[in-house]
Amino acid sequence: MDAELHFQVLPHDSQEIVLALDQNLYGNRLVVASGDHKLRVWDKVDKDWALTASWRAHDSEVTDVKWSGPYMGALLGSVGTDGFCRLWLENPTAEPLSDQRFKLIHEIPSKTSRPWQSLDFRSHVSETYLALTTYDGNLSILEPREQDELDKDWIDWFPSSNFYVVESPPSASEEASFHVQWCPEREPCWTALEAGLDRKSLGLAVAAMNNVVIFRTNRERRLYVAAELHGARDVVRSVAWSRGAVRGYDIIATASKDGIVRIYELHTPVEKHSTTNDNYRSPSGATVKPTSATASSGIGAGLAEMSRIAEAQTSSVSARDKSQVKHDVKLVAELEGHVGAVWHVSFSFIGDLLMSTGDDSSVRAWKQDIDGAWQEFAEIDADTLDQYEINDEDEGSDADADDVDEANLDFRRLSVG
User: Fold this and answer.
1) Neighbours of 328 (CB within 10 A)
2) What are the start-end ranges of the H helices in 219-332?
3) pLDDT digit string (tens) for 260-280?
4) Residues 34/21, Cβ–Cβ less than 8 Å
5) pLDDT above 60: residue 203
6) Angle subtended at Cα 311 by Cα 307 and Cα 313, rounded to the nearest 5 degrees
7) pTM of the predicted protein model
8) DSSP string covering 84-113
9) Residue 4, pLDDT score
10) What is d(CA 396, CA 220) in angstroms, rounded to the nearest whole number?
11) Which of 94, 127, 314, 351 could form a disulfide with 242 if both were Cys (CB 3.0 to 4.6 A apart)?
12) Given a cut of 50, is residue 408 above it in pLDDT?
């Protein structure tokens, strides 16, 4: 017998479309970005979600929003088509829904003529990094000048890397798709460590139009390309990196406009090592060098040296660097459950469940069967939520099991294995 379902429809005081959302590490806070230029934060109390904050964050549509890690306070990052990335720090002593609840502490203008499109934080204890991409494929990686001052009113960020991930940026009339996600694990998988990858190596997946580029950092904290994911017949709109380094390989999922959810495995043969240099070679074959680097420590210090080293032609040093480990890519699944384009994919916290959503207004769950093949596990048809109306008296109330039955939600659990 299926477990009892519990849904709560969160009222949205705007007719504008929701463009992005993100949950914090513990799953008890939700931030939503929408076309009305606002951010909204809900907190979970028992089984209910309560609106805590709502404010105008940008002067145009907010296209992406992310929580940072929980180690240095409640920090949010958002990007909008106004060309700015803005960082917001919560004041927990301020009244809920007050203008002082989240304070703007820093803003980062786009480095090109196109606005930011995507962002992601890599935060672990005392280290925090921020990856940003623009609509023309410019990737920036930033870090705070003082890693232990994230909870201050002002954060002095500076660019540690800035370069294009494609040889030819898309024109203004083309659909651009550039999205980033850091590897969520604290350390790389054990096979990569045995192959020589540095234990503190960072991993970053960048969806660049129809391809995905996997970056790593070597022992000298310099960025290099560890793998590239191909196969999409249209732009990749979302990329998700699964937890689970103990399995011995990484799993990455992509959502594409061609309607397919693709799942890749990144394996690391122990006997193979990379002999490539630090320059990034794009899928088209063009070598791309950083355009700016002013950092003095951490990953920033390593990336700041990339251009200088390339100009000095010290590729022989990199050739001897056994920490520049390459991954073997295996496309293990092309899932065709959605009707129309797929917009977003996301793994569960432990990485055993993949969720996807697309133009067909459905949310689909995928799991591996006993033979290791990925199968559709469940589906939620969101179209039937139109039958579940919320009036003024219902706002903020529970959606109990009886309400869900009355809404006639189309939720199917499929046999796996």
Assistant:
1) 12
2) 298-304, 306-312, 315-319
3) 999 999 999 876 444 444 444
4) no
5) yes
6) 115
7) 0.79
8) EEEEEEE-TTSPTTSTTSEEEEEEEE-SSS
9) 57
10) 52
11) 351
12) no
